[in-house]
Every structure is written in C-alpha cells, then in structure tokens.
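Running this now, will post back.
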Amino acid sequence: MENKKALVVGASGGIGQSLIQYLSSLKDWDIIGLSRREPLFESKAQFISVDLLDRSDVSVKLAELTDITHIFYTAFYGGPTFSGPVAENLAMLTNVVDTIESVAPGLERVVLMQGGKVYGRQMGPFKTPAKESDPRHMPPNFYFDQEDFLITRSTGQRWSWSALRAEAFCSDIVGIPSLPLLIAVYATISKELGLPLRFPGTQAAYNALCQVTDAGLLAQGMTWAATSPNAANEAFNLTNGDAFRWANLWPQFAKFFDMEYAPPQDISLTEQMADKTDLWTQIVEKYSLQAHAVQDLAIWPLGDFLFHCDWDVLLSSTKVHQAGFYEVVDSEEMFLSLFQTFRDANLIP
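Update: finished.
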C-alpha cells in the first residue's frame, strides 16, 4: 500500500507543528509543510516557503505536488485571539485548494481547522452544549466562508472535506499563543514578586464552564478526520471531552508552583505585564532559564480574552464519538503535565 501524502498548510503554527510531529511518527505518511517561514523543529517533513495570499506564488511553488492525497488546512490570518478578516482567510484556502486540485488527481480529503468561534463564543453567551447542527450567528465569520467554499467546491468531485472545531488549543510549543505557557509565566512572575497566585479575570469567568483541546489529541483527531469514511463532508467539535471551571483548577495550579492562592483579581494582563520585561530577564538569569523574551512565551491578549469570558464555553462531543473518534484527555492532568514539561525544558524555574 502506497503512503498517504499530507500537505500541512500553516506548518509553523502550533496546530501545524503538532500535526507534523504526529504524522512523522507514523510510517504510512509523507509530509509537505507550507509556511512563510521555515519551522525550527525536527520532523520528516519537507518544507516550502510560500505566500498563501499570492496566488501566483502558490501556483508556482505547489505545481510539482502532484501526489498530494490529503490537505490539512491550519493556516490563519489575524491576531492572537484568532479573529481575522474574511477575504484574506478565504483567499489563502482557495489558492491552495485550487492549485492542488488541478495538479493532484489523487486528492482524497481536505481537513479544515475551525474553532469555538464558529458558534460565536467570542460574542457573548451562546447555546451550550453547542452542536454542529446549531444555526450560525450573524456574519461575518471567516469559518463560514471557508466551509461554504469547501462544500461547494467538493460537490461532484473525487475529494471530500471535513472540519474540526477545537477550543483553546494547548501545547508545549514556544512562540505560539499558548494558554498553559502563559499561565506558567504569569505564575512565575507572581511568585518572584512574592504574590499569591490569583486568577487574573472576572469572577464570572472564574466560575464559568470551560473546555480546551490538547495538541496531541487534536493531531490524532485530524488524522482520523482525514482518513475515516465517517468524517467525509462533516464538521465535528473536538475538545478534550471534559469541562472544568477555573475555580477548581487554579488552586491546583498554585500547589504545583508552591504558591499561596488568593481570590480572583480582575486585571488586564496586557497592561499589567507591560513593564515586566526586565523582571523576566532577571528571572531568566537568576534561574538559568532558556533565554526567551517574555513576549515570546506569554501572549497576554490571549489571557485577557479567555479570562474575561463570563459565559460557559461548552461544545458537545457526541457527534465525533458517534462517528468513531473516542480519544479523550483529562484537562487538569494536561495542564499540570505541561507545566512540568515547561519546567523540565528550563522555560520556568
């Protein structure tokens, strides 16, 4: 049986990196990664530097990829809280699919990454648990346009599409918007200042139900979505499978960091951490940590967004389980394991 060949679009992003590393562990996958900058991690993938917004550049750079069987689309154009314009995000997907479809007769499936913003989780309270069959919110939302493009474009074609809707992606990768690493850096700074650990958001967000998606789980889920007949032409929510309240997790975080815990204090991390650059440099030197700037480890606007979400964010996992993907992750264990990974990697003391 011939190997499947993946085209991972957005190879330098967190989801793209995690997927490439997972596929590299599998014997039956060959991998091509696309990104504007070459990723700095080891894998068996080959990389192509391309400007996805430049249709001519995409056409030229991808013209030789005649043996692609699966496209994993993880690219994104926008800010750190994963909100972005419709035109650019749709154009990037369109440029890739148009080019590969025209040169790769063996294309089988396009897997599109989406998120909880499909349901308007960024706009305020929404129906929970959110189901894939729920009506859309008032546009614009580039996820809608990308999905509609794939539905229309794949009709009557040899290939199908699948979409995965993750929530609050969590990994150990440095240099991407990472919630666990942000929490670890925030706790380290608080401890160095002799402060207790406080949840830096609203009381309502502290008590609301939350979900996250582990990087390894998502990579497995994307591979399943690319290959399972049950996933063809369907969208699926994919989270760790549980739900939690920050009120129950943050005291556990304080224990991990050997800190006192105190009630929430509503602050803007973006504002309050703006003057902590020199302090982090001192922490790095004091504990002989890896020499990363604090802004490369903690994307503070991401924390402000998630820690000021005063409503439940709960996506139903029923559909994906019924379709045959059963893997789950305990979110509390995931956070504590990632904190230990950061410590072992000398990113935090």
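The domain at 169-211+243-313+326-344 is CATH 3.40.50.720 (Rossmann fold). More later if anyone needs it.
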